[in-house]
């Protein structure tokens, strides 16, 4: 047989709870030779100290190539993923704090709910929506409205339906299978954060590379 061809595919960022980081934990590995593939997966690339509760490291894909070449010098390594990656570590006792996660989710939901409500009220006040509704009522029915009318009712219903459709969610299910605008923005934010960390680590020499 010829030299084994080893394919590795790393994502831009990975989250781990195990302090000992193996190649198989942070990258996909494929080789026709199953024994070689398993050996590559078990190669240790970094180990966080036991006292560390959380941390992060930045790796060049060449660092993984170097580690593999040291263990399997006859192998041909091909990268089909990211050239650099960030590995975020959080100790298991922190990662499984479900009640903390729930409190954070509740705080975020409350902030979004009241923030959106104040924004809508501020907009309605700026454009004098009550006057607009009064003019619409008079234009269609030819008389001045007395109190709350069907215009306000339709506006409230339309606003609620519009929010559900825009954010691609109704209670209990999605409207379509496409990602929601919030998910898209969160992924873009995550990519920007990772790229900022990786660029900063590379310039400061904090990234694990072949020369380390």
What can you see in these coordinates?
The chain is an alpha/beta fold and 212 residues long. The protein is built from eight helices and ten strands. A hairpin with a 2-residue loop joins strand 9 and strand 10 (173-174). It is elongated, with a radius of gyration of 27 Å. The relative contact order is 0.14.
Secondary-structure element pattern, one letter each: EEEHEHEEHEEHHHHEEH
Q: How many distinct helices?
A: 8
Largest sheet: 3 strands, mixed
Find the count of extended strands (DSSP E, 2+ residues). 10
Helices and strands: which structural class? alpha/beta
- What portion of residues is helical? 40-55%
Sheet-strand content, in percent, reads 15-25%
Strands of the widest sheet, in order across it, are: 4-1-7
Estimate the global geometry from the Cα principal axes: elongated
Give start-end ranges of low-pLDDT stretches. none
**What is the chains' assembly state?**
single chain
Mean pLDDT: 87
Concise summary:
By secondary structure, this protein is an alpha/beta fold.
Chart the SSEs and their pairings.
Elements: E1 5-10, E2 13-16, E3 20-22, H1 23-26, E4 27-30, H2 34-41, E5 44-47, E6 54-60, H3 61-71, E7 76-79, E8 84-90, H4 92-95, H5 98-126, H6 129-141, H7 150-166, E9 169-170, E10 173-174, H8 181-204
